[in-house]
Amino acid sequence: MIDVEVLATGSKGNCYLLTSGETRILLDCGLPYNKILKLLDFKLPDAVLVTHEHKDHAHAAQDFLNKGVDVYMTCGTAMALGLEENHRLHLIESDKYFSIGDFMVIASYASHDAAEPVNFLVHGDDDCVLYVTDTGFCGGSIAIGADEATKILLETNFSEADLKNSTIDFSQKKRILENHLSLEKAAEFLTQTDLTECKEIYLIHISARHGDGEEFKNLIQKVVGDNIKVIVAKNKELE
């Protein structure tokens, strides 16, 4: 079983913890290192997977390397972050499996304004987690293996109707449309995916300005049916 814990989600930082057996990995590390460590109760993860170089996803990558944690990302992401060669830095390629403890992981190309962005499919013994974030398109290689997912972390960044009526300028709207997954595109992806194995869907990276978590949850729940639990991801608060 893979346990999913949302540490942070949204434009201010993204970080998700997956645990299976003795293995703990982070999906992205978009918060300051010390804050992530507190959220982890000061227990370092076995590895960190980074989707791309933007600060809200890769803020603590160098710090984890400095602390001796294995960090996985594409060559393009590593170059964009200016990371130097390090035996803890693992350069990955799209559509090629690699193992981390109890997990088998494969990356798939994402459509985002970054050097070499990817999303991840993480296999455990009897669970499979699909992590889709910061992409303007959800299909192609991302969809490969999606029907195996028992848990899906899916970006639902904005409502296209809300964005259309927004007062932000055209260039900002264009960037959002091209680089983030809308509620409508997320729903379309789910309707085209065999969700027989799926038990939980986490709605992540929801825009504070152009998204409404509860509204999105209700719509996605209608799309996927009552047998799948839909969860609005929220930031974990420090005690």
Summarize the structure.
The chain is α/β, with parallel strands linked by helices and 239 residues long.
Description:
It is a single chain. By secondary structure, the protein is of the alpha/beta class. About 25% of the residues lie in helices and about 25% in strands. It contains eight helices and 13 strands. It has helices at about 35-40, 55-60, 60-65, 75-80, 160-165, 170-180, 185-190, 215-225, and strands at about 5-10, 15-20, 25, 45-50, 70-75, 90, 100, 105-110, 120-125, 130, 150-155, 200-205, 230. The strands form two sheets. It has a seven-stranded mixed β-sheet with strand order 7-8-9-10-11-12-13, covered by helices on one side. The chain has a six-stranded mixed β-sheet with strand order 1-2-3-4-5-6. A hairpin with a 2-residue loop joins strand 2 and strand 3. It is globular. The mean pLDDT is about 95.
SSE diagram, text form:
Layout: E1 3-8, E2 15-20, E3 23-27, H1 33-39, E4 47-49, H2 55-58, H3 61-66, E5 70-74, H4 75-81, E6 89-92, E7 98-100, E8 103-109, E9 118-123, E10 128-132, E11 151-155, H5 160-164, H6 170-179, H7 183-191, E12 200-204, H8 213-224, E13 229-232
Parallel strand pairs: 3-4, 4-5, 5-6, 10-11, 11-12, 12-13
Antiparallel strand pairs: 1-2, 2-3, 7-8, 8-9, 9-10
